[in-house]
Design a protein that fits this description.
178 residues, alpha/beta, two-stranded parallel sheet
């Protein structure tokens, strides 16, 4: 018999020391640490996607996630999660990881992780890497990876499947190169 449970999932995007960037998607390093400290002080255990799929879920669990693959995840979140013995899932956008590998911009406060940083994040044992699409995460013609008004279900299925396959190939290349 499977037990039913509710799993809180806390999603972050970007952590910045630049207070002019703060908004619904950007918090300070101190705010992030306060959140994680609260969870730790109140007996929460963070779980990975692997644990969720395998049913290895402690009673007071939470899943911590990061969208997009900002470099701030590595810079600010990793040390805090290690400090409090927590884990997280980082959903990277493959094309942005590739772009920042080819053309690093570590000066920008909104830089994305390059492939070497994704490898280090994974090797930390703190983070799992997830797919946030390869190149469908945009607000142009398509809103995120949603179907467009003029696509048939079959056309959309092919576009999405191709994008996910492209991410899978890219992900394999990241770890085959290490």
């Amino acid at each position: 018999e499977q037990r039913q449970f509710q799993l809180p999932v806390i999603m972050y995007h970007h952590i910045s020391e630049n207070t002019s960037l703060l908004n619904d998607y950007v918090i300070t390093p101190q705010e992030f640490e306060n959140d994680i400290k609260y969870l730790s002080d109140n007996g929460y255990s963070s779980i990975s996607a692997f644990q969720l799929v395998n049913g290895d879920i402690p009673e007071k669990s939470v899943m911590i996630t990061f969208d997009d693959g900002f470099l701030s995840t590595y810079k600010f979140a990793l040390p805090v999660l290690k400090k409090y013995n927590m884990t997280a899932v980082c959903a990277v956008i493959g094309s942005l990881t590739q772009e920042f590998t080819l053309h690093p911009d570590f000066v920008s406060d909104c830089a994305y992780m390059d492939t070497d940083t994704v490898r280090k994040l994974t090797a930390s044992g703190v983070f799992e890497i997830a797919c946030h699409t390869y190149d469908m995460h945009s607000l142009g013609i398509r809103k995120g990876c949603a179907e467009t008004a003029d696509e048939t279900d079959d056309e959309y299925r092919k576009v999405l499947t191709d994008d996910l396959a492209r991410f899978g190939n890219f992900y394999e290349q990241i770890f085959d190169a290490s």
